[in-house]
Amino acid sequence: MPYRLFCLLMAAVGIQAQQTPSINDTQIINLTPGLATQCGFSFKFDPMGNAMFFASLQNCFSQNMAVASGYKMTAVVFSPSKNVMNVDEVQRKGYAIANTPTRLVLRSPHNAEETYLQNVAGVPMRVLSTSTFFEQKWLVTRVDATAVCPTPEAVAFTPEVITWYMPKHIDPLFSSDAFTMLEVYMGIDAKRLDTEEMAARNYSVLVTEAHIIVEIPVGAVGGNFKSHIQDDQYFVTYTIEPMLELLWIEEVAHENTSYKVLFPITTPPMARPPQVRNLPPSVTGNCDQENFHITVDYRNQEPFFVVLVGKRLLNHEFAQQYLTEGDTDFTITLPFSSPDAVFELVHSSVRSRLDVALLNPYNNMTIKYFSLACSFLKTLTECFSNGTMTALAVKVESAPGLNPGQLTLSDPACGPTYSDDRFAYFHFTVNSCGTTRKFINNVMLYENEISLPDELEVKLNATTSSEEEYQLKVSCYYVANITRTLAFLTRPRDNEPFAETGTGRLMVRMRLAQDASYNTFHQEEDYPVVTYLRQPLHFEVELTTSSDPKVALVLDHCWATLNEDRDSRPRWNLIINGCENPEDPYRVVFHPVEADARVRFPPHVKRFEAYMFSFAGDAVEPSGQVFVHCDVVICDASSPTGGPCSGQCVNQDNLKRGRSCFMLFRPWQTITELIGSLSLSTGQRHVKDFFEERHVYVSSGYILWV
């Protein structure tokens, strides 16, 4: 029979540890029920008949280091009887009392003489209340401690539900009525359960003004049935050991109090006929291109089992979303990417596996186990006719420490466009990221590989030597030559297209702003403007004479020359077909235009930023003049027709940096004069030497790009 006991653990600083029984390696002590209760041991059998032995860390035979603080435990007073005992008397009565440098431990049988019953909020509770005295010369220290445990009368039974009532305000443990309950947790067999696990087992915890009410279905997972024969009749009892953990704070003391109780509960005998079972239910499964389909056939029997899908119990919410029920069977349909499935890496390819177990609800024994693994190649890799590929890399079971966000394609510079703790998604073209191509008859095969960079692979293997190397091959097939048949119909137009005719004049101007705000601009008398190499120049091109909101100005081409002739050579392109020159180490940057007091129609204005540059070449000597030219296109903003009217390019950050030196000169300064004010690095010294041999002047009114 089980032996119930109190275990009281109190903090006590500076108290000398008491002598504990000592044993050597060969000594055997008969652990009687009384000694087990006194010393902090318990013993029971699990539903399968396995012996389970429990020992407190503060048991009588654990070796605690004594600390000499000068205090000596002298007496224990039990309330409300006021019985006073010394330490030897306490131990002879079956109690255990000991202390460590920081704890006082008092252990008592559940129905000991000095315990008493107290009605707390209508619930009978058993209480042990003590005062322990410690002496040191002329000083006496008292430690008051109280333990409160539920009694069987705190539980109500029906054939379907066990209900346990726990007072919310446990009077013997409180010094006032004003308190705040901070935490309430439930567990089974001393293990705390989260909300999802409680819901899967149909447990419930209700906190009211006076009570904390725990409800457990009879036969729920976590407990077990036991058979009994009485007067030639068959009975069963159901046993479960729930746990409650409470944390509260009293407004007067301003200290947190933690309370934990483990409460074994056994139902009264219930007359139930023994269940006669045939062979277990069958489990089968198959896959389509996206889902697992698991069918459980229980063959006209009562479904005497619970279902574990992956690591999750099949509860009501799970069933509503994924389960289809028949007369004698049910089917679970789960996507391959479900968190209940695991991924396996097999010969550089990935497959998804779903494990399903049928468990006995009384003892959690496995009735049937089934595992289904399938490949989902179409879902993991997609190939598009425009020459792009997408690939989904997954975290596999054999590499639990893998961070999918660190995976790359064959080119380590090509990382995922999206990743989380289970997946990494890649999007790339077949002529990039190290993709290889080979021809097989009339088919082009493009292949790439997803893996960790070498340095990360080495680091991962160093920390988790059991993990396998992650390598996932992705491929796309394209037919090199193929003929398609296209059918189409024609019909005559209802009317001929026509255009409205009229006359008008469109004026476009280009100006240089003084800064990136584009609020003020250089006037004609400001030129030439003095600046330095790599300094930004902010240009604005504006359609000035139109008030039509349906038209838009687009920069088609912009370039620089050494004279006024727009077709002269040399020529350097700044904007090509509406986009930055890809060969320019200092690409132009387009700036958005917002409506304000000056700009009424933003589509009529385009702004771009360019950096000072130099015409370089042995055959051409630097000139004192540089001209910037632009071709623009006026488009119908409501119906762009492609080409330049499809829109201006989006800004792109330019990370390249050159070593050239650029300046804007005053007309009266020579190159030699300006060079004297510059500090050039060794790599720029040849620029200084070149310019010192020549005196180049700047004509007024022109920007000099050297």
TrEMBL record:
Cellular compartment(s): Cell membrane; Secreted
Start and end residues of each ZP domain: 382-652
Keyword tags: Cell membrane, Disulfide bond, Glycoprotein, Membrane, Secreted, Signal
Alphabetized InterPro entries for the sequence: ZP-C (IPR055355), ZP-C_dom (IPR042235), ZP-N (IPR055356), ZP_chr (IPR048290), ZP_dom (IPR001507), ZP_dom_CS (IPR017977)
Signal sequence region: 1-17
SMART domains on file: ZP (SM00241)
GO cellular component: extracellular region; plasma membrane
UniProt protein name: ZP domain-containing protein
Provenance organism: Oncorhynchus kisutch (Coho salmon)
